[in-house]
Amino acid sequence: MRRAFVVGHPIAHSRSPLIHGHWLAEHGVSGTYERVDVPPEAFAGFVRNLAASGYAGGNVTIPHKEAAHALSHALTPRAERIGAVNTLVLRPDGTILGDNTDAPGFVAHLDQSLGADWPDRTGGTALVLGAGGAARAIVVGLAERGLARIRVANRSPERAAAVAALAPGIADALPWAEIPAALAGTGLLVNTTALGMKGQPPLSLDLAPLPERAAVADIVYAPLETPLLAAARARGLAAVDGLGMLLHQAVPGFEAWFGVRPAVTPALRAAIVADLAAR
Questions:
Q1: Is 65 a catalytic residue?
Q2: How many other CB atoms are found less than 10 A from the CB of residue 63?
Q3: Gene3D superfamilies given for it (predicted)?
Q4: Omega of the bond prior to 63 within 30 degrees of 0, cis?
Q5: Could you tell me if 109 and 98 are in contact, meaning their C-beta atoms sit under 8 angstroms apart?
Q6: Has 105 been labeled as part of a binding site?
Q7: Residues 6+ apart with CB under 8 A from 159
Q8: Which residue has better confidence, 65 or 279?
Q9: Is the pTM value of this prediction over 0.70?
Q10: Gap between the Cα atoms of 58 and 19, Å rounded
Q11: Which of 20, 35, 65, 145 is catalytic?
Q12: 24-39: per-residue pLDDT in tens?
């Protein structure tokens, strides 16, 4: 029986066991996927003992993604570029490969939600709000997808510039105050901040300047319909919620640990939506 995990601190809120448990049952795989709460001071020891613990690998969430990057024996080019790891794979020789599947997970969700031709239909431009770990992954993912221009806005100009530097020649930093003026030239607006999340103030932004072809994405999935997405739908714009990124980023890890490539299906999404509604 192969074992995998999601490690974080705290970790009780994670929906990853529901996702992977759904796929294990769907494909008849003999395996387990469990939550593991590890405080920062114990994380290095946890990673070093992966082989002895019988794990094939697992997911890494807050606050361990940067530490996982440092502790991996090898990194995928994407993880190296982003500077954070959310997926660990124990290789046959006992070494640990670190990957970042947030970037392709976000793009796969856009492809599924908007159609594979969305970069052309939206004009190939994006405005990313925020400069945390999610923004870093998303900027790299959008650059890999072939977007022509990506703007990064954050209240800290230095942090915005650092994220934009991940895609030289494509991305640039934008002062937070200039967001309204930049919307007219934006084909994809992405909120990576916590604004709009339960317990947080909404992201107050007038979407009127966005072109009619524009799409709006929010990585927040609790609530599933954030005020930003509600405003986008009210304007008749395509709106992409945050749950799909969570689902799609899980696909590569499951394949690496259990040997089967799963699909993000309506049944899986419905199961997670039901769990969100129950909490």
A1: yes
A2: 13
A3: Leucine Dehydrogenase, chain A, domain 1, NAD(P)-binding Rossmann-like Domain
A4: yes
A5: no
A6: no
A7: 131
A8: 65
A9: yes
A10: 13
A11: 65
A12: 999 999 999 999 999 9
